[in-house]
Design a protein that fits this description.
By secondary structure, this protein is an alpha+beta fold. The chain has 2 domains: 16-158, Jelly Rolls; 159-198, no CATH class. It is built from 3 helices and 10 strands; from the N terminus they run ββββββββββααα. Strands 1-2-9-4-7 form a 5-stranded antiparallel β-sheet, with no helix packed on it. A 5-stranded antiparallel β-sheet has the order 6-5-8-3-10. A hairpin with a 5-residue loop joins strand 5 and strand 6. The longest helix is centred in the last third of the chain and has 11 residues, at 186-196. The protein is globular, with a radius of gyration of 19 Å. Bound molecules: glyoxylic acid and manganese (II) ion.
Length: 198
């Protein structure tokens, strides 16, 4: 989904302060200054903590954490799920996602623009693909911890969290808009906001 590269590589000069993506990527380090380590990333070794309300952890390997990905149209995440844990509903505006389960039993699902729900329970070694921009999740349906690697055709797929975008936006979307949109009482919106606002 990203623009085609115009050179072999463009290991990014790490953006100051984590920064937003420049178009069509970040500036390149001079090629003569790039060593093998520029193409290496160890940040997905080890599980993140799943000791949270979702029982899940997502460690990102995108251009912000892994500068060697700059201009290459690729990213990878590590998703860890405690038993019953969920990587909650979200979408990626800039990439399709390939989910590859490495351990455990994971229900993966997405909804198409036709409103059809597609899903599958995956075990070790199995993959599922999530079309760009569609709302999706991973849910651990086994009784042991589960792990998936997720791969993207963008160096920075972006994440729109369903609950975060609707009920955790800053500043807030007015309660009246949300209540009308979902055809529920404002009290329900307030409850949902209380879970999502930081
Ligand atoms: C999983 O859906 C991920 O975005 O890593
Ligand atoms: Mn995803």
């Amino acid at each position: 989904a990203d623009p085609e590269p115009v050179q072999d590589f463009c290991v990014a000069v790490p953006p100051a302060g984590g920064g937003a993506a420049a178009y069509p990527g970040f500036p390149c380090k001079p090629a003569s200054a790039v060593v093998s380590g520029g193409f290496f990333f160890a940040g997905l070794a080890g599980a993140g903590s799943t000791d949270n309300a979702f029982g899940s952890s997502v460690k990102p390997g995108n251009v912000l954490s892994f500068p060697g990905l700059n201009t290459l149209g690729l990213a990878i995440n590590r998703v860890d799920l405690a038993p019953g844990g969920v990587n909650p509903l979200h979408s990626h505006p800039r990439a399709a996602e390939l989910v590859h389960v490495v351990a455990g039993q994971v229900l993966v699902g997405f909804v198409s623009t036709a409103g059809k729900y597609y899903s599958k329970v995956l075990t070790e070694g199995e993959s599922f693909v999530i079309p760009r921009g569609t709302m999706h999740f991973q849910y651990n349906v086994g009784n042991a911890s589960a792990r998936a690697m997720t791969v993207f055709n963008s160096q920075l797929p972006g994440v729109v969290g369903a609950a975060a975008a609707l009920f955790g936006a800053d500043p807030e979307i007015p309660d009246a808009v949300l209540a009308k949109s979902f055809q529920v009482d404002a009290e329900i919106i307030k409850l949902l906001k209380s879970k999502s606002r930081k």
